[in-house]
Specification:
The structure is a single chain. The protein is built from 23 helices and 25 strands. The longest helix is centred in the middle third of the chain and has 19 residues, at about 395-415.
Amino acid sequence: RGGFIQCINSYSTAAISRILPYVVGTGDPRSTSWEMVLKHSERVILWGADPLVTNDIDWLTTLHNGAGYFRALKAKGTKTISINPIATDTAEYLGSEWIAPRPGTDCAMMLGMIHELVRTKKTDEAFLAKCTYGWPELRDYVMGKTDGIEKTPAWAAQECGVPAEKIVELVHDMQSHRTMIMMGWGIQRIQYGEQSHWMGFALAAALGQIGLPGGGIGTNYAYSNGGTPMAYGPFLGGISSSVKPVKASTLPWKGSKVIPVARFADCFVNPGKVIDFNGTKVTYPEVRLVMWAGGNPFAHQPDTMNLERAWKKPETVIVTDTVWTATARHADIVLPAATAFEHADITNIGTYSNDGIVAMQQAIEPQWESKSDYWIFSQLAERLGCQEAFTEGLDEMGWIRRLYGDAQKMGERIGVKLPNFEDFWKKGYVLFDVREKDRKFVAFEDFRKDPKAHSLDTESGLIQLYSPQIAGYKYADCLGHPSYFVPSEGVNTKTQDTPLALMACKSRYRMHSQLDGTTSHHFANIEDREPCWINPADAKTRGIESGDVVLVRNKRGALLAGAYVTDRVMPGVVVVHHGAWFAPMDVNGRRIDVHGNSNTLTMDVPTSSLACGNIASTALVEVEKWKGELPRVYVYDQPERVLV
């Protein structure tokens, strides 16, 4: 008998969800209501955020509430500023001012801004003294007393490429106006990704606007319609995720039972290796069987060529999926799962908005040999001797009824009456009302008014600008205060062989790798390849024109992409949007992804020893015009049906 390895963290928020509990007591703080932003914010800073591309992504179903608020923001004429190496769709829609720091240098830019506030005595010392812990330690770092490097706007300009005078102008404009900083998640999926959001809270604290209507910082406006007023109603639970084992293992378990999910390839190859993680030590177990469901690691795991090698180490790989992804293609056994249209289910509406509950009614019969996830796992549980513990004697509709019934009971406790199940299922949904106090919600407002009565779940109960606990870990890559670390691969460390920094942003045409197997890829692809955005100056020196097929390469891997020459990306940077299905092929003795999966180029190292998150946008590459025969993109071909 073996054991089960739990993977923790997510590929979306590994760094931010680990650092912010130290800083503000939660990994995903609720954002100030959009209605308060529209009423009070005089400046909206979109820092590493492109909400019109990413906002519709949700763990649940969604009403797309955020779109209306962005229309209202534009109609009001509030000044918006987009801080991003690329000109985003959101910035184009809003007419935002565009400030373009080099990828991975956001913390340097913020340090220069904090320095300017200190120099001009415009930090909010009353707020810092009342609501934060560790300002003297952070200030010493900013002013160079810690490491001998004074983080002036001029120093910041050398690192981030934004002129010092623009850094100075921006921070004074933010200080003199009610400003909401909306930070995206992409800037924490980089090397040292923990630092950007910690530094963002430090900047917002120095400005002193945290807890004021329309001021401060929010870290989920760009996802799941964050900032939409939360409706008042019950939440749905789920099937129990942990049960007592039916039979105890007779063999000793070697290694940790929990690993950071982005380190799984390293774990496959190096059983017994010990790594640091969030103040603990993790020992990799030996993995002999893999059961992967509900994900596509051959799209989201960095350094895909290395993953391809590591994937061969376990003896057996089983994949459950609805479509023939690259991960399914690399499996020994594929269990075909039914889509959401082929079985019944139930879900809340809106991760942050909690708009209501919807009945996911079966639309068609399962096609071919596909079965629902619940059926698949129930059958596996039966064969493992734990079916009763897993199903608790319920079929799918039995679980749907139970979950709805539990929500009804929760509704009764909070004064929200839900209809009986039959009426709910016939109508198909129930919506909740929004209370006036939720329309007027201001993040950290109560804390600001009385930090003792409304203390945060941090070491001091305050916003931690310095964490003795993190400092005690003695990590070289995550200090006790937010810091700037030069990326191993970035504009400032370019080489002759790899002079361009890669960004792997979200595509507007799919969600991660989902939908890449549909006609959606026709909207952007060039010669069936993922586009590679390249600045006109960089394209000219390489003899590249829009429509050319190019080879994007570094020491880790290579891919073919279609060139899109545009001034929407800054010089020295290229963009290959994340999520193209991995299609490796040996071409002239070299392993190349012929379709354009950006992760063939990224580094599979942890963000830091704290979070051990994944890195999706840290890489140096070279781009050159492809002159050989063009390989066919085979990744959409249907497999041969094998009946068992």
